[in-house]
Amino acid sequence: MSSRVARAQCANCTCSPGLISRANRKSIYKRLSLNRRNSTPGSGSGCTSREGSIFTFNPSLCLPDAKEVNTSKRLESLRKQMKEHDLGIYIVPSEDQHQSEYVSAYDQKRSFISGFSGSAGIAIITRDMNSVGDTFEGTAALSTDGRYFTQAVDELDFNWILLKQGAKDEPTWKEWTIKQAVQLSLDSGSTVRIGVDPTLITYKLYKEFQSILDKELAKNEKVKIEFTAVKENLINKIWEQFEELPSRNFGEIKSLDINFTGRNVQDKLADVKKHLTGDIKGIVISALDEVAWLLNLRGLDIQYNPVFYSFVILTEESTTLYIGENRLLEDIVESLKTAGITIEPYESFYSSLTTVSTKLSESNKKFYIPDNANWEVVRNLKCEFSQGLSPVEELKAIKNNVELEGAKIAHLKDGRALIKFFAWLEEQVIEKQELIDEIEADEKLTEFKQQEDNFVGLSFDTISATGANGAVIHYKPTKGQCSTINPRKLYLNDSGSQFLEGTTDVTRTVHFQKPSAEEITNYTLVLKGNIALSTLRFPQNTTGNLIDAIARQYLWKYGLNYAHGTSHGVGAYLNVHEGPIGIGPRPNAAAYALKAGNLISNEPGYYQEGDYGIRIENVMFIKESDLRYDGKAYLEFETVTKVPYCRRLIDIHLLNDEEISWINEYHADIWNSFYENFDKNSYTYKWLKRETEPLVKSK
């Protein structure tokens, strides 16, 4: 990297904003590398001993700052395209046409135009319609949620406004967009067209936006605004002016044995077709993890998510997979055909949908369109339709016994790797006084995971964060520009694995020396929330929003909180974030009841910006308890994660007897599960023994 370049010098920058780490945007004092030096008075400069060393900031070790991204030229080029398409506003979502949360490099259009690399958010770009000639001015805004506020501030350049979703007095992106359109229409006296690629937003979102727009238009007859589909993606049209447009990745597709899935394809198809009732005779399946689960197949098209680009259309007479036979091995093709599945090219999905729906229309039949289907799906329908939760999403979320046992096995393997890792890291930075940076730690953890049988890969980018970096909820260290782990600071590690048996997601926050009283107190409050949710029993038909406060209550008592959900669904060797259930303030948590068989995370946290972050995350599954009331069963959680909590950070005097008992039982189970795996003289064995010893309250 060249030395720092001022924004004014960066007008023609072609760096990919989506690949620039937040670490590159830190001012020099926040990017000082840690250096150990001998602090013994009179020691010579050539001394290499690390005994009695202390941590000091050494600016000479700082790597050159990365060139900052200037999005001015990109926005100017986009606004030129907007003028050619007669658009006053253009919306750039994060998702691909399958509404995937994590997308391939080809689909990172919002990252390209904004410079913000987080997984969630939406970009809105306006064009001054009174501009003449080659002048293309306007405003640009990026809307994202609380997980990414700090990251967005670091990554967005001076061209962008940050809209903080959920923050007090902050408009939603829809409200902000319509307000801009109203002003543009008043200023220009003409119709303002708001454009979006119809494959990248759901039909449900289109209706929500149009409803808000209609209400605004009803209030002001002078305003003329249209929300319109722009099939030609405008980001793709400008991408190669600045850098090569990434190609789609088509990875190998494999069949997942019934020993891992618990059910065959024919049985799953039969369950889905039960929804073809009354006048509904067709169903579209567009979410990639739903197709993979339904067909017992796994792929590599999107990093960390074992899915492949595909659609499925089911009718009473047929099931068609849109992918193309050239992507499938012969034995998979034969297996699918045996299950009654026809295979067609991926590119023919929309035209086939038009053909099939036309036939249904002729007999007055309907399609069922899931809420997660894109707007273009509906635009190609020629028959009536109803809409709601995808039947595949609902079925997939309720794990069968084989999948639940797989989750236990996967977390046992992941737990062993994490125990090795935390023991190794402590030995390196304390006993051996080595300098280990966040990426080196990440790579070592991956090495331990790779030693486990049936390990396929990670389930997301590992969050390896020391000190203040831990306060960035979805922090991603960058090789060569990350921080050295400071044993005097909190270290947060959030990692996940993909095993054939299941998907894992575990977060632990640790301290290697003597934490502050504040860190101990706040860690213990987070831990109390984690335990409270772990031990909760609740009646059937309870939605996640109703129990979110269980995990937050101890933080709330002191006026503290965290800006993310408490729980998300977890896949069975599938996506680490899985719908439809959740625990938190988001709408999905209120819309769908928690059910026995759901696999779900438990991750309260606390973040002190500029100082430290705390998060404790386990994965649990829901099962029936032995309680009944008024003839209805109560549900409870069973934790499958097997990684000790950090003893140095626990204030036992803030815990009650039940919480202490729960921790001791949890740690005893971890000890019994792993102690035979390690040599008694090893550092790992001693670390595990120390971390799992019973907590005893002093009298």
Blueprint (SSEs and pairs):
Blueprint: E1 34-38, E2 53-57, H1 72-84, E3 89-93, H2 109-114, E4 122-126, E5 140-144, H3 149-155, E6 160-164, H4 173-188, E7 192-196, H5 203-219, E8 225-229, H6 234-239, E9 254-255, H7 258-261, H8 265-273, E10 280-285, H9 288-295, E11 297-298, E12 311-315, E13 319-322, H10 330-338, E14 341-344, H11 349-362, E15 366-370, H12 375-379, E16 385-388, H13 391-397, H14 401-431, H15 438-450, E17 455-458, E18 463-466, E19 491-495, E20 497-499, E21 502-503, E22 506-510, H16 517-534, E23 537-539, H17 548-556, E24 567-569, E25 578-583, H18 587-591, E26 599-602, E27 605-608, E28 612-615, E29 618-629, E30 632-639, H19 657-674, H20 683-692
Parallel strand pairs: 3-7, 5-6, 7-8, 10-15, 13-14, 15-16
Antiparallel strand pairs: 1-2, 3-4, 4-5, 9-11, 10-12, 12-13, 17-20, 18-19, 19-22, 20-21, 23-30, 24-25, 26-29, 27-28, 29-30
Helix pairs in contact: 14-15, 14-20, 16-17, 19-20
